[in-house]
Amino acid sequence: MFNHKFTIKSLNMLRNNMLGHVGIEFLEVKDGFISAKMPVDNRTKQPMGLLHGGASVVLAETLGSVGALAHIDSETQVPVGQEINANHIKSAKEGEVVGEATPIHMGKKSHVWEIKIYDEQRDLVCISRMTVAIITKKK
């Protein structure tokens, strides 16, 4: 079930949180797919001048969580991160990275999302898998 109320415009209005701090911008959201970009700059680099692995995980978790949100009944359910892992494959020093997320499993109580993060040359920088618990909102 894809929830069409989540558009690029509405998602990019989510700025007063981690997304705004690190400059994440959503690019595409559709049934079974979501993508976003993030700058490689002073907000997202580690002291040695490379993209911080934690920043990659922030992008990955954002995509997994928001991807799940776009595929549930957001009036009665909430997606929450349960587990995430990340393998850092290649470093990035400048420009921006793009994350693309697709679901591996979308059940009633959990989702599993695979997130791949690429640099501007389309080289794989990080691959991540995230389990998202789908919980019922408290009334």
TrEMBL record:
SUPFAM superfamilies per the record? Thioesterase/thiol ester dehydrase-isomerase
GO (cellular component) term, any one: cytosol
Keywords (A to Z) from UniProt: Hydrolase
Record flagged with keyword Ribonucleoprotein: no
Q: Name one GO molecular function term.
A: 1,4-dihydroxy-2-naphthoyl-CoA thioesterase activity
Q: Which residues form the Thioesterase domain?
A: 48-126
InterPro entries registered for this protein in UniProt: HotDog_dom_sf (IPR029069), PAAI_dom (IPR003736), Thioestr_dom (IPR006683)
The record's comment on protein family reads:
Belongs to the thioesterase PaaI family.
Listed NCBIfam families: unchar_dom_1 (TIGR00369)
Full protein name: Hotdog fold thioesterase
Organism whose genome encodes this protein: Flammeovirga agarivorans
Taxonomically, what lineage is the organism?
Bacteria, Pseudomonadati, Bacteroidota, Cytophagia, Cytophagales
